[in-house]
Amino acid sequence: MLRLVLVDDEDLMRNGLRLVLDGAPAIDIVGEASNGRDAVAVIEKTDPDVVLMDIRMPVMDGITALRTLYSAQPLDRRTPVVILTAFDTDAFILDALRAGAIGFLLKTTKPEALVAAVRAGAAGQQILSPQVLPKLMAAESAGDQEEPLRKKQNPRAQRKLRWLV
């Protein structure tokens, strides 16, 4: 059974995600949070296999929560976090991936693709919404001098790469 934590500040979004993911075989939602600070506490308490997290939230945003979580976890034991957001700006994409997110999905993702992405993230596979890939490639080829994205991923994630289409 795959253990999942949902993190989104919108009750309606969390409820919709729960409906989609609770209906999928072998997925157990073990926790939920409405902001990044609470997410870190829920993740530490429940030890999920994967987290599905929004970026823009009150109290603490998803990227800060990801950095906070990963600062307390060894590189080879990090909980995979898949970002699920409505915002596909270059800055959000790069910040999330540099912080160590294993995936970046848009909220326009179809339910069956979301279920597949959660499973892939739990298995250590990197995943991106198709609309994100061109932005990521453009940003990287533009000579972005920040630390390469691959250095932020755990070793297991570095070996596996999957693009959702």
Automatic annotation (TrEMBL):
Keywords: DNA-binding, Phosphoprotein, Transcription, Transcription regulation
Coiled-coil regions listed: none
Xref: CDD domains: REC_NarL-like
Post-translational modification 4-aspartylphosphate, affected residues: D54
Pfam families per UniProt: Response_reg
GO MF term set: DNA binding
UniProt xrefs under InterPro entries: CheY-like_superfamily (IPR011006), NreC/VraR/RcsB-like_REC (IPR058245), Sig_transdc_resp-reg_receiver (IPR001789), WalR-like (IPR039420)
Domain Response regulatory, residue spans: 3-122
GO biological process, one term: phosphorelay signal transduction system
PANTHER family per the UniProt record, alphabetical: TRANSCRIPTIONAL REGULATORY PROTEIN NARL-RELATED, TWO-COMPONENT RESPONSE REGULATOR
Official protein name in the record: Response regulator containing a CheY-like receiver domain and an HTH DNA-binding domain
Lineage, uppermost ranks: Bacteria, Bacillati, Actinomycetota, Actinomycetes, Mycobacteriales
